[in-house]
Amino acid sequence: MEQTLVIIKPDGVRRKLVGRIIQRFEEKNLTIKEMYQGVMTDKIAQEHYAHLKEKPFFPNLVAYMTSGPVVFLLLEGADAIPLVRQMLGATNVLQAVPGTIRGDFACSTTENLVHASDSPENAAIEIQRFFG
């Protein structure tokens, strides 16, 4: 079984989509091993998105991720990382196909509802960061 981190971002929480997003993961037989709601601190947001630090949108990304509550999910299942990434759809919502979470619910690329680990190595780091 593989584990992955999913963060339902502030727009997903604000728009009351948490239950609908979680339902999709459960329908794909992914198990919620741990889950909590919290507000990401500026320090943690900067650490989590450090790989984007040189991008011009970095300050706005940090501000967005710290703008309200998020939901942290530790999901487990067979091939959880690629499965979840496929379920999310493209980061650019204009390229996210209908049937994916972003394709069905996201309204903009800057507020695209969800984050998910993109590799086993990053999943291990991210799970440690948010679940200890």
Could you characterize what this model shows?
The chain is 42% helix and 21% strand. With 132 residues, it is α+β, with helices and mostly antiparallel strands. It has a 4-stranded antiparallel β-sheet with strand order 2-3-1-4, with helices on both faces. The chain is globular, with a radius of gyration of 14 Å. The model has no long low-confidence stretch (mean pLDDT 96). The active site is at residue 115. Belongs to the NDK family.
- What's the CATH class label? Alpha Beta
Low-confidence stretches: none
Shape: globular
Distance between the termini: 19 Å
Strand content: 15-25%
The CATH architecture term is 2-Layer Sandwich
Give me the strand/helix succession: EHHEHHEHHEH
Family: Belongs to the NDK family.
Organism: Candidatus Enterococcus moelleringii
Domain Nucleoside diphosphate kinase-like: 1-132
InterPro entries: NDK-like_dom, NDK-like_dom_sf, Nucleoside_diP_kinase, Nucleoside_diP_kinase_AS
List keywords for this structure.
Alpha-Beta Plaits; globular; ATP-binding; 4 strands; nucleoside diphosphate kinase activity; 132 residues; alpha+beta; 7 helices; NDK-like_dom_sf; kinase; nucleotide-binding; 4-stranded antiparallel sheet; single chain
Topology readout:
Elements: E1 2-8, H1 10-14, H2 18-27, E2 31-39, H3 42-48, H4 58-65, E3 69-77, H5 80-88, H6 101-105, E4 114-116, H7 120-131
Please give a quick description of this structure:
The chain has 132 residues and is an alpha+beta fold. Helices cover 42% and strands 21% of the residues.
